[in-house]
Amino acid sequence: MEPATQILGIETSCDETAAAVVRRHADGRGEILSNVVYSQLQDHAAYGGVVPEIAARAHVEMLDALVDRALGEAGLQLRDIDAVAATAGPGLIGGLIVGLMTGKALAAASGKPFYAINHLEGHALTARLTDGLAFPYLLLLVSGGHTQVVLVTGVGDYRRWGTTIDDALGEAFDKTAKLLGLPYPGGPAVEKQAAGGDENRFALPQPLKGESRLDFSFSGLKTAIRQTARSIAPLGDDDIADLCASFQKTIADTLDERVGRSLARFNREIPGARDPKLVVAGGVAANRTIRARLDETCAAHGFSLVAPPLHLCTDNAAMIAWAAAERMAANCPPDTLQAPPRPRWPLDEESAARVGHGRRGTKA
Ligand code: KG4
Ligand code: ZN
């Protein structure tokens, strides 16, 4: 049996500065010894989105103290760590450089191996840390930067089945909120408004509905909201609530139809899988209406929905440390200190890039 390993992880790919220490026990069980996150939400709120230069500067200012805290809360010193891991991409170049340089410096100073981790792999493997999930399973990643369905069959073995051809889902929430005059980030604001609205008042389009490909598209929906809002302006409070409720219902219907096709494909192609699982990750997974609908979609296809705790669904460094721990256990060689930042880095190198596929160069 391999020995237990303790990994220091660093995450700086977008607007969360994070450090964590994770232990992988000899039996494969994961344990989070510390997990600290500084969210830059307030730094960017006035601009209605993430400003790359502000993000990079905040990472520089915060990261050293966060690494110290993560080690301190774990009750460990750098010499007790078996490897250092940092996100190398995809994400904003400035932040990636800060995290990578810091991780490499710590690895060099302590003589420990260094792992340059794909942020998406962190999301993809989190359910093994939290729920000890066995391969294979499907991942639905719905965040501000990505909307993907990924088949996860092993460490380093990922197949992207579907992705957005334009906006990411979180981005669609954020843009809809903005055009209705709601605050950033838009997802929570839209969900709150929707709770008091009539979801059947406006019939909105469901892009790609019925198409056999497994991709997503959300920009048409946002345009439809804009046109509808214009046609009934000036908007009263009830109108905004009804627009939000109709938008959210359409998203839930769309996910049901689009994701349902991926579940059906999994059942066709991997018929022997017992109790198949859909893991949901990303900030949009916080949305209760969407989660409830995904639960129904899963049940209809004989799947269970696995939703890790929200602070591990959104960006964090525990998932980066865990991905490195999994790589070590799978005997993947460490990376060199020359490993470059990769602002664009598909999880599944074989999938062709789609037009758009989410917010440019930003986080997952
Ligand atoms: O995963 P995340 O924290 O950051 C990344 O993009 O990586 O996701 C943030 C996104 C934002 O677009 C935000 O509006 C959306 O998740 N979001 C939500 C909710 N909470 C956050 N979308 C819908 N409903 C929510 N309750
Ligand atoms: Zn992410």
List the helices and strands and how they pair.
Blueprint: E1 5-11, E2 16-24, E3 30-39, H1 41-45, H2 52-74, E4 83-89, H3 93-110, E5 114-118, H4 119-131, E6 137-142, E7 147-154, E8 157-163, H5 169-179, H6 186-194, H7 219-231, H8 237-269, E9 277-281, H9 288-300, E10 304-306, H10 310-313, H11 318-329
Parallel strand pairs: 1-4, 4-5, 6-9, 9-10
Antiparallel strand pairs: 1-2, 2-3, 6-7, 7-8
Structure report:
There is one protein chain. The chain is of the alpha/beta class and 364 residues long. The protein folds into 2 domains: 5-130 and 312-329, ATPase, nucleotide binding domain (Nucleotidyltransferase, domain 5, 2-Layer Sandwich); 137-307, Nucleotidyltransferase, domain 5 (2-Layer Sandwich), CATH 3.30.420. 42% of the residues lie in helices and 18% in strands. The protein contains 11 helices and 10 strands. It has helices spanning 41-45, 52-74, 93-110, 119-131, 169-179, 186-194, 219-231, 237-269, 288-300, 310-313, 318-329; strands at residues 5-11, 16-24, 30-39, 83-89, 114-118, 137-142, 147-154, 157-163, 277-281, 304-306. Strands 3-2-1-4-5 form a 5-stranded mixed β-sheet, sandwiched between helices. The chain has a 5-stranded mixed β-sheet with strand order 8-7-6-9-10, sandwiched between helices. Helix 5 packs parallel to helix 7 and helix 7 (219-231) runs antiparallel to helix 8. The radius of gyration is 20 Å and the shape is globular. It starts with a strand and ends in a 35-residue tail after the last helix. Residues 357-364 have low confidence and may be disordered. Zinc ion binds next to helix 4. Residues 119, 123, 143, 315, 363-364 line the site of zinc ion.
